[in-house]
Amino acid sequence: MLQEVITTMRSAKRIGQTSLAVNKLAFRWLRNQRTHRETLPIMLRDTMQDLGSTYIKLGQLVASSPTLFPDEYVEAFQFCLDQTRTLPFEELEPLLEEELGARLKTRFKKIERTPLASASIAQVHAAELINGDKVVIKIQKPGVREILETDFQFLYFATQLLEMLNTKAWKSSMLDIVQEIRNGMLEECDFYQEADNIEEFDRFLKGNHIEHVAVPAVYRDLSTEKILVMERFYGVPLTDVDGIRAITTDPEVALVKALDTWFMSLKQCQIYHADLHAGNCMMLNDGRVGFIDFGIVGRLSECTWEGLMSFAVCIPAEDFDGVALALTKIGATRKEVDLKLFAEDLRKLWSQLSSDDLLDNEDPDSFWRQVTVSFSSISSRHGIRFPREFTLLVKQFLYFDRYIRLLAPEVEMFDTERMDIIGLGV
After folding, report:
1. Catalytic residue check, 275
2. HEC letters along the chain
3. Mean pLDDT (whole number) for 97-104
4. Chain centroid, CA 271 distance in Å
């Protein structure tokens, strides 16, 4: 009963915060009618950043969806893609004490107050246990789940209203997109699930006698739904070429082994890591490759798997008619697709990718965002909307392609031997 009262009070507080933010936005917009110093997209972006995790995620959606939103909004919201505010450790301490109780004093020797990393849902702090083990603590930001639920109730209503007012404006169901974001964020809030993901992947590694890739050990007795304590890894991001060469004289071999392992997990593990950006994929000091942060994982349906098989066979051969057909099998279509036109658009995008050199690009992350946006734009233009699992796969392919260009430019991502590993060889 007490918990229900607390949740209701938090929800009421959140509704009040949202109302206040909207009122401030309205006042700012009215004032700007006289000065014309700011644009509405910039003002709306700032408001969403102030409202926190849910709205930042939605801002990221706007930034990556040029087919759903005007160009000026897409451009303004690019800032949300890299924007996460850090909470002072003092705001996290009460949650740590509530979740761990006496264990906080009896098991931990020290906890670093400055975070190693911060995301919309959680922060990661380095720590040392009484027994000398070096660990990291992933701490959920206070009230995140309640805030998400309250925010999405409002967003469901707003989205339904927008779709009723202007159905033709949307290339795909905005309600479905909001639902996908909600489900993904709520899954990220369950650290028991993330611990399960890590241990599932660890069983896959050990079952296949893979020693060149590692995941952190989970301290189950110190972890809860909101706190995750893990072994600390030491190393450098997979994009730090100089740092990697200081660890190994043959970074290409390490990368190929990591790539083979990830591809193998698509078929032989119940989950695959779906967010291996440079911060989550490390060259460890002992020469292994470390996969960390299993908050976002993918699970392949049979339909997506069959489409992926065709996709992987057609891409190396630059058979874009085959690629187009494979993608239509994976995606949900709202109209009959002209495969010839779709294939030609994909061919143009591939040509653009081949001519761009990531090594000379001052902002490679921005480059890959544009690639993803272009792919999404082409698909939406042809009436295709892909399931979340395929979107996660494409994002991961782009990450690995970047690592290959940096460390092993002679390596082919979809080569015959690698496809044989997962049963895609022809």
Report:
1. yes
2. CHHHHHHHHHHHHHHHHHHHHHHHHHHHHHHHHHHCCCCHHHHHHHHHHHHCHHHHHHHHHHHCCCCCCCHHHHHHHHHHHHCCCCCCHHHHHHHHHHHHCCHHHHCEEEECCCCCEECCCEEEEEEEECCCCEEEEEEECCCHHHHHHHHHHHHHHHHHHHHHHCHHHCCCCHHHHHHHHHHHHHHHCCHHHHHHHHHHHHHHHHHCCCCCEECCCECHHHCCCCEEEEECCCEEECCCHHHHHHHCCCHHHHHHHHHHHHHHHHHHCCCEECCCCCCCEEEECCCCEEECCCCCEECCCHHHHHHHHHHHHHCCCCCHHHHHHHHHHHCEECCCCCHHHHHHHHHHHHHHHHHCCHHHCCCHHHHHHHHHHHHHHHHHHCCEECCHHHHHHHHHHHHHHHHHHHHCCCCCCCCHHHHHHCCCCC
3. 93
4. 15
Closest C-alpha to 152, from 122, 124, 174: 174
First and final C-alpha spacing in the chain: 61
pLDDT tens-digit readout, 250-293: 888 888 889 999 999 988 999 999 988 888 999 999 999 999 99
Backbone dihedral angles phi then psi of residue 285, each to the nearest 5 degrees:
-60, -20
At 421, the pLDDT band (50, 70, 90 cuts) reads low
Q: What is the pLDDT of residues 29-79, one digit of tens each?
A: 566 665 555 677 777 777 766 766 667 767 766 665 555 566 677 777 776
CA distance 188 to 76: 26
Q: Which of 46, 133, 250, 275 is catalytic?
A: 275
On the CB side of 236, how many CA atoms lie within 13 Å of its CA?
A: 14
